[in-house]
Amino acid sequence: MTILVIAEHSNDHLSDATAKTVSAATKIGGDIHVLVAGSGASAVAGQAAKIAGVAKVLHADDDHYAKQLAEPMAELILSLAGDYDVLMAPAGTDGKNYMPRVAAKLDVMQISDIIAVESADTFQRPIYAGNAIATVQSSDAKKVITVRGTAFEAPAMDGSASVETIGAADFPSISEFVKEELTKSDRPELQGAKIVISGGRALASGENFEKYIYPVADKLGAAVGASRAAVDAGYVPNDMQVGQTGKVVAPELYIAVGISGAIQHLAGMKDSKVIVAINKDEEAPIFQVADYGLVADLFEAMPELEKAL
Amino acid sequence: MKVLVPVKRVIDYNVKVRVKPDQSDVDLANVKMSMNPFDEIAVEEAVRMKEAGTVEEVIAVSIGPEKAQDQLRQALAMGADRAILIETTETVEPLSVAKLLAKVCEEENPDLVVMGKQAIDDDCNQTGQMLAALMGWPQGTFASAVTKEGDKLHVTREVDGGLQTIALTLPAVVTTDLRLNEPRYASLPNIMKAKKKPLDKKSPSDYGVEIIARLKTLKVTEPPKREAGIKVESVADLVEKLKNEAGVL
Ligand SMILES: Cc1cc2nc3c(=O)[nH]c(=O)nc-3n(C[C@H](O)[C@H](O)[C@H](O)COP(=O)(O)OP(=O)(O)OC[C@H]3O[C@@H](n4cnc5c(N)ncnc54)[C@H](O)[C@@H]3O)c2cc1C
Ligand SMILES: Nc1ncnc2c1ncn2[C@@H]1O[C@H](COP(=O)(O)O)[C@@H](O)[C@H]1O
To answer: What region holds the Electron transfer flavoprotein alpha/beta-subunit N-terminal domain (chain B) (predicted)?
Structure first.
């Protein structure tokens, strides 16, 4: 069995989810290679070489890979696919974008967002917003898989794989990068953070996130998330949405503030180790999954919490 | 331009599904079904393009049971011009859906396909990307804004780090994210009018696509259940518990 893991990165930093995807690959077993396709991304290739269990890193460097656009990425992965039995990527917005493109070209059904490996062809994945877990067996000769990072342990970073430079593949001239607006924050990344504090519709404004959520987050060294309602209302940017169709997090501690606990939100946080809910409605469904519930007005409780920490 | 909008009949997003006791599947008997929410957003976007004059015709297509007509009628009531139902009682995986949609694209030659990023039942998030691949078209996934700029389509995408805008040649596939628009409710007169709009019925074999499942579901189980914990009396109590009981602070 040979497995290719496609790295998720920002050209200078490899994502934690990539390392966790290697953990999932280790569970399948076999020779594991990592593909780093980027622009000026040799540091990333170096980081990938340190992931325990990786035998070789393939590094393709070209401007066309700078923004991970689906069309050139899929061409590159397809040019390598012949040598591999399994192609895997983290289920972030990059992997979700190019992997199904690869799968369709290989005439393979992608196995999306796996949370467990039962054997080389059998996997578990959540369906219906995580209200059910399906165990599925793939009959495809080649497997294309995306991996939910939060479901796998981070591997040790004591490896020393070789790094091999490879050439670029074709660049289809059908798509191009125009611009990006990346959210800048000094707080930890949502998906890697040990503590996440999320705000919901009850915050009522972006200013209130500044006033009531961020100070507590900073005291705790926590990442900040949000419900869909808070994002839709424009209080915070889209990349902070936690849930079925946003980001999935599983920190040591998740604090939900003024969030009702709709199934779509729970889908993104109910695997957190300890859940705290602060809500003024004692009937709010969030309390059904919370280890510690505080029935209170957040506008009073949050300043108190900030002081108590 | 001509736009194709695939819509899927799925469990209503308000319903919490239950797993069948024999673990063969979830129980969908007597459960409310609706149009996949992301597909409503797709229909809305196509209809708005038509209202803005960039699009002449909007065609809704669904692959599913006879009942999926309800969702197609809803798309028609929202403003789609005609509909195609590819009827089958089987579960059709995204790869087969993409193959059927590719055949429809070959027949209809749309300039654009707008569809949901994710069906809220299988949570696969792959059909649009697969269709784009099969057609050799570019893809703008997780769209929060779509504008026509000359002969290109600019798509702003919701990505993990924020927003990314790309330019695509046409034809292209766009998949919708939550912030693209807020779908309208169909008015009663429009619901009545929709009943008279054309709805073609086809079968997968009309398109020469054989529905073969590549993934076999061995079982469907309940996720580990979380027990509700305790209510704390005060912020001080909470901090004390998090420090000394849970050990997370
Ligand atoms: C297709 C689809 C996908 C979706 N994906 C997601 C997703 O990924 N993530 C997500 O989060 N949602 C998602 N949703 C939306 C979800 O269904 C809910 O609408 C949303 O999570 C509600 O957000 P909320 O809890 O902030 O708001 P509400 O449900 O309005 O809850 C606000 C809560 O705040 C409490 N409150 C009010 N004032 C105060 C106060 N002063 N102090 C304390 N508490 C107070 C109220 O009691 C209430 O419980 C999705 C929906 C659809 C249809
Ligand atoms: N059976 C179907 N009929 C029509 N459209 C579908 C069907 N299945 C999936 N789609 C489309 O593909 C999108 C993504 O679905 P999925 O890849 O299953 O998450 C949906 O939002 C629909 O737009």
So the answer is: 23-211
Q: Which residue of B has its CA nearest to A233?
A: B179
The Cα–Cα gap between A174 and A48 comes to: 30
ipTM over 0.95: yes
Q: Would residue A185 count as lying in a domain?
A: no
Specify if A195 maps to a domain.
Answer: yes
The rounded mean pLDDT for chain A is 97
Q: Do A94 and B160 touch (CB under 8 A)?
A: yes
Supply the pLDDT for residue A254. Answer: 98
Using CB atoms within 10 Å of the CB of residue B57, give its burial: 0 to 12 exposed, 13 to 18 middle, 19+ buried.
Answer: middle
Strand partners, A254: A196, A275
Cβ of A260 less than 6 Å from ligand 1: yes
User: Could A253 and B248 be called an inter-chain contact, meaning their C-beta atoms sit closer than 8 Å?
Assistant: yes
| A247 pocket-lining for ligand 1 (C-beta < 6 Å) | no
| Integer Cα distance of B61 and B82 in angstroms | 9
Residue A220 lies in a domain: yes
Tell whether A244 lies on the interface with B, counting CB pairs under 8 A. yes
Q: Mind listing the domains of chain B with CATH numbers? A: 2-244 (3.40.50.620)
**Same domain for A159 and A198:** no
Ligand 1 close to Cβ of residue A300 (< 6 A): no
Q: What does DSSP assign to residue B117?
A: S
How confident is residue A2, by pLDDT bands cut at 50, 70 and 90?
Answer: very high
Q: What is the pTM of this model?
A: 0.98
Average pLDDT per consecutive 10 residues, chain B (249 residues; last block may be shorter): 98 95 96 98 98 98 98 98 97 97 98 98 98 98 97 98 98 98 97 98 97 97 93 98 96
Q: Verify that A146 and A240 share a domain, yes or no.
A: no
A147 is annotated as contributing to ligand binding: no
Question: Where are any strands of DSSP class E within B117-203?
Answer: 139-149, 152-159, 162-169, 172-176, 199-202
In a shared domain, residues A199 and A134:
no
Per-residue pLDDT, A223: 98
Count Cβ neighbours within 10 Å for each residue of A179-195 and write b for 16 or more, e otherwise.
eeeeeeeeebbbbbbeb
Evaluate: CB of B179 within 6 angstroms of ligand 1.
Answer: no
Task: Out of A166, A199, A219, pick the residue that ends a domain.
Answer: A166
Q: Ligand 1, closest atom to CA A241?
A: 9
Chain B residue whose CA is closest to A221? B249
Domain assignment present for A131: yes
Domain total of chain A: 2
User: In the prediction, which pLDDT does B205 show?
Assistant: 97
Question: In percent, how much of chain B has pLDDT > 90?
Answer: 98
Helix (H, G, I), strand (E, B) or coil at B78: helix
Distance from the alpha carbon of residue A79 to the mean position of ligand 1, in angstroms: 44
Contact B128, B171 (CB under 8 A): no
Do A84 and A119 fall into the same domain? yes
Residues A139 and A258 in one domain: no
How close is the nearest chain B Cα to the Cα of A145, in Å?
A: 11
Indicate which of A12, A109, A287 best probes the interface with B, i.e. most B CBs within 10 Å of its own CB: A109
